[in-house]
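Risk register update: the risk of archive-format incompatibility is retired. Evidence:
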Amino acid sequence: MRDFSNCRRIVVKIGTNVLTRNERLDSQFVEAVAADIASIRSAQRQLLVVTSGAIGMGAREIGVAPPIRQVSMRQACAAVGQPLLMNTYRSAFAAHGVSVAQVLLTREVLNNRRSYLNLRNAVETLLGIGVLPIMNENDSVSTAEIGSAFGDNDQLSALVASKVDADLLIMLSDIDALYTGDPRLNSEARPLRTVSALTDDVLSSAGGAGSSFATGGMRTKLKAVAIAERAGCRVVLAHGRENAVVARVLAGEEIGTLFLARDRLSNRERWILNSAPAGRVVVDAGAFAAIRRRNSLLPTGVVHVDGTFAAGAIVELAVADSSKVRARLITSLASGDLVSVMGRHSSQVASLLGPGRKEIVARPEEIVFID
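Archived output:
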């Protein structure tokens, strides 16, 4: 039996395919999931919801038929659908005496350290006063194309779980588990009840996309699991139409697939790891070996710089002769300055850039390794 008795903060992600029936929002399901979530809220347990469905709901309201590919039209549908979706949630939770708050997110909010901390403080306050945050991507104003800012709400839910220090992420989908193959095509495919690590074999089980309004498939769900896994947050993938599924998962029933977590990173490390990079720094093998030993990254080890970024930006780190990203870091030098001093000894930085400039690229505590 699974043990979630120590889980104090839980994120529940509700997918489009679960929320809708015949491509219409199923208000009876929303009422059922509200009752389910309300039943397990307590002084010891805090819940957050990440929801999909705004674009589809808005499209139906204004009579736009799928597929909707034009970004501006998808943004318009999201703007129409978001208040309708939230009103449905508000009514469903109000029946159980639960107040809800709408929290709309963009990548920019999570990438910027100050706005992220402001968001975190607001969410902590909402949870502290007993309000249930309901979160979604702010599709109407996002500067990235819809679906590219977070990839989808699967990954958004994992980022939320990471950034609010959640102990468990429950992803409610229209599939009941991760299988060894596609059960629609392979009668011998069997469900995996516990996955200890995202190996190549596990990743090869990923499937395709969902309905006309959904953007997530099994592959995106596994990407989300990888984000939560690095944050020390366990994930349960389960069928959202199971009766009282959230309460039953937390009670330890073997529903869906449980993905185990790695050791928890610090909040700052998770922010570095999960923020969108502004560029890339390529180093030689010797420099990479040095930072692996918890030394600072020095200009002498840098061999190439991609992108234009300011000092204090988060960038990817790769090793020469390999395209694989090995880490992310906060750079103390802007891209132009870094190009001017790369390959040079730290003692030359002042003469090249002027006095008072940082002589290192990144300190050990500002470097987070991906593997």
